[in-house]
Design brief:
Blueprint (H helix, E strand, L loop, with lengths): L4 E7 L4 E7 L1 E6 L3 E5 L5 E13 L2 E15 L2 E10 L3
Parallel strand pairs: 1-7
Antiparallel strand pairs: 1-2, 3-4, 3-5, 5-6, 6-7
């Protein structure tokens, strides 16, 4: 299915990664677990935890990050300061 969520990841070093046609975004933070899907209500938040992107039948593990995100009009932006080392 086309026209799902567009994801833009920006780390503090200026590296940008873009993903198109994302079916869902899974956020597992120390305070909450959240799944964002197409046409989800606008949301802004802080994360210190793991982020996964679901694209077709694949799951992309962004890893453990600390940062801020915004989802609005099926566009998800994540600005993070660094990846937290996996334990």
């Amino acid at each position: 299915m086309k026209d799902n969520i567009i994801v833009q990841l920006l780390d503090i070093n200026g590296d940008v990664k873009n993903y198109e046609n994302v079916s869902y975004i899974k956020i597992m933070s120390k305070d909450y677990n959240l799944i964002i899907m197409k046409d989800y209500l606008p949301i802004i938040g802080e994360i210190e935890g793991n982020v996964e992107l679901g694209i077709d039948d694949d799951v992309i593990d962004i890893g453990k990050v600390k940062g801020y995100y915004m989802h609005k009009h099926n566009k998800f932006n994540l600005f993070f300061s660094h990846n937290i080392e996996k334990e």
